[in-house]
Amino acid sequence: MTHKTLFLLLLLCLCATLVPGSGWAQNPFLAPGKTAAEEQVDARPQAAAPNPLLLRINAVQRDFRERMTGYARQIQQTPAGETTLKFLALTFAFGVVHALGPGHGKSIIGSYFLARRGTLGQVLLFSNLITALHVLSATVVVFSLAWLGRNTNIFAFQEIEGGMQNLSYLLISLIGIFLLFKAIRDLGARRQTESQALNASSDRGSMAALSLSAGLIPCPGAALILLFTLSLDILWAGLAAMLVLAIGMGLTNSLVGLLTLGTRGAVLRLSAASPKAYRLTYSLFALGGALFIVFLGTSLLLGNLAATGARPF
After folding, report:
1. Sequence-distant (≥ 6) Cβ neighbours of residue 122 within 8 angstroms
2. Over the stretch 214-251, which tens digit does the pLDDT of each residue have?
């Protein structure tokens, strides 16, 4: 009973760090600090009191954006120089803080490595792949708007982004269901030895599928930076910022993945003294992680459909 109680307490603490904040429950990735104009447009009442930590993160992001705006204007006047390095360094720091907010793939990364055994290389690959695709999709949308001659502003971007959300959420749910059935199959396999059945590892196929699904939703924070540099005619600086931003966000996501992996391993080692407790702990991790991915995708899909008044597929 001691092992089971300890496991449940640690699992609840870990899940509390992975669940998206209520204020951003519509989208696991849309978590930038808003400008004053955006806050006036989106003045919907919040279901719960603002989280002090999130308020602090948003305040830091606003400060970073103001300083990045100043550097970008200086780059426009003097393209080469120390200002460019400062702009990129601040963009990296912005990416690290930006990814600390709710979303940006942390819930998916944490749930995945809660469900399946992984390595350091797999955590780094998965975390940075999700981030890279998240930023890349924003870049593609902004370039598409410019190429089509449409208004290249955040409102036009949000129209396209909104149309991509439902597909992304649906794919996440389907992949979660696949992982759930796979976990059930592995746990129920009678022809495998017990050590094989209890060591289902991460695989590149499922990580790639989840990365593509989550990355379909473009990063609004990346779009804001790229749109601003495009308006100043310093697109080269904006493209460089996208690379640095992805690295910064990937660092935060990687730390979340490593924390999950370490917590999972520590709990399993604590329960290893009792084979029965170990099997129970492993089963709860495998099934709970996959179920959380299904819940995440499904709840976000239904919530988005309800918010937009759209009909199900």
Report:
1. 202, 207
2. 877 888 888 889 888 888 889 899 999 999 999 999 99
